[in-house]
Amino acid sequence: MKRTVPFFITLLSGLFCLIAFFVPHPWIHESYGAVQTWAIVVVGCTYVLGVANLLRVNVQQAQRREGDWIYKIVLIVGLLTTMAVGFSEGNHYSDVTSHFNWIYRTFYSPMTSTMFALLAFFIASAAFRAFRIRSPEALLLAIAAFILMLGRVPLGNAISHYIPDAADWLMEIPQNAAKRGILIGAALGVMATGIRVILGLEKAYGGGGEGGA
Amino acid sequence: MLGVERGKAGVHFPAAVSVVFFLCSLLSALPVAAFPLKASDTPNDGGGNITLEWTAPVPVAKEWTLVRRERGGTFAPVTTIEGTVHSYRDGAVQTGVVYEYQLVAQPTNPQLDSEISGATQALASKFDWTKLNVLVVSGIFFLLLFFYIRQAQSGVRWTFRKIPGLDAIEEAIGRATEMGRGVLYVPGVQEIDDIQTIASMILLTKVARMTAKYETNLLVPTNSPGVYTVAEEVVKSAYADVGRADAYRGDQVRYITSEQFAYVAAVNGMMLRERPAANFLLGAFFAESLLLAETGHSVGAIQIAGTANVHQMPFFVVACDYTLIGEEYYAASALLSNDARLLGSLKASDTVKIFLIVVIVAGSLLLTFGQTWLAGFFSTQ
């Protein structure tokens, strides 16, 4: 029973969404819109579970004085303060002059930007490893990357106008061909996975099931 | 003779010119025939749209005011359209109500106005014919799927190419067990309705069963409460499936945050504190892919990544030990399970791929010879 009911819900929902993709008639599409609204309501409810989990895990870790426990305190205080400020400002929480907005601009935004900025250093270290030529394929990759990088900066054009052309050719022909091949394969994979889930062949999804490892 | 004829013509010339001018002035005084305006139901929609098409005379008006009336009513303006435009879709009509249209020239010049269109109404289509190609390919896929599942049930087995990343999953978990360290499973940063996240949950089942069997710590940080809820159920069930329900701890699956870089900061912190021996990055990833993979590399973990996001694949290829690319990622659960019915779906997928390759080659050849019907059939909106 525990697995039969979810299976039928998945089957019916999947088939209904499949039909809605092909049938634009309001009979189907209005119901489809309602189903999507239900999904939003369900996701909204899961936020309660998510925040409860977040608080439980971090409070326990802070109580046990686990590694970096002081950051758990910062997280809990930050979460509760932001929620309290947001709720107290009601519908005006996103106004430019609101305290919630001030918290967002002063704390959240710079920290996010900092994390994103780190990407530049990670790219540099990853590129250093990627361009070590240890095989013919790595040599091809390094040559293609060298032409592409040179073709994308003014220096490449100053050396020869063929270099930006070669960079464009690399992007438009071999890169596009490989990308489309991957996309076609992935699209078929999506279909296969979707059908397996809808038909209940992948019983593992949604909890439990046979087969597998 | 010739002289006489020339003489006659010379005598009648002024009169002839007068007649021509008279006729011309008469014609110019007549109203110009209004051009036709074609109104029809917009096809393949849910109703509420009427398409208007026209070929305006020369000279065209600078602008048109489109006016509309219900049958028997009075015209009211709908919108203003540039004089050079030749079609318009009116999306503000009621399905089933009969309308008539007219284009009125601006600045006002009744001679340039269109005819009143024929009465038409917006109707809701029962099938979107522009998606017929998708239905055909999906239908073929379904038929093949059932055919191969039946074959699999009758004992037929196929050979699929080995995917090193899949073979490495058990090896990575075994290594973590031997080292007495944990396993970190990151299911991407999309919601649970994303097919990549769904595929990730399926793979999480396999990974959780192995970690439960080997008594290795598994940590699953999620970036969506929806994914958290499902992941918790999946891991709990996987532990129960292998008879280790008691080993499941409530803090193994965690909701972190829905904010992309805050999530990255938290997961990177976990990697640096817990120093897992194996990292699984399986799901939909965006700019955070390299931030996660490079941190994982820096702590010396075996890393197995899988995604269908083409732009993130190069980052994973560079920073991870194994990468499941596109279809490999979706095929992983079937290959790991070795279930005949699931493998049948892979066989169907491969057969459709061959069919599509044939269609692409045939379509290219036909286009080369000026035949567009096959490419047209498979074009998408």
Annotation keywords:
heterodimer; A: about 210 residues; mainly alpha; disordered C terminus; B: about 375 residues; alpha/beta; Immunoglobulin-like; six-stranded parallel beta sheet; four-stranded antiparallel beta sheet; 11 helices; 13 strands; about 50% helix; elongated; disordered N terminus
Specify the CATH architecture of the largest domain in chain B. Answer: 3-Layer(aba) Sandwich
Give the strand order, joined by hyphens, for the main sheet of chain B: 10-9-8-11-12-13
Quote the average pLDDT of chain A. 90
What fraction, in percent, of the residue positions of chain A are helical?
over 70%
* Tally of structural domains of chain B: 4
Q: Any idea what the shape of chain A is? A: extended
Roughly what percent helix of chain B?
Answer: 40-55%
* Number of strand elements of chain A: 0
Helical run tally of chain A: 7
The largest chain-to-chain contact, stated as pair and per-chain residue counts, equals: A-B, 67 and 92 residues
Q: Please indicate the percent range of residues of chain B in DSSP E strands (runs of 2 or more).
A: 15-25%
The profile of the biggest β sheet of chain A is:
none
Task: Report the C-alpha radius of gyration of chain A, rounded.
Answer: 26 Å
Taken in chain order, the helices and strands of chain A follow as: HHHHHHH
Low-confidence runs of chain A: 209-213
What structural class should be given to the helix and strand makeup of chain B?
alpha/beta
Order of helices and strands of chain B: HEEEEEEEHHEHEHEHEHEHEHHH
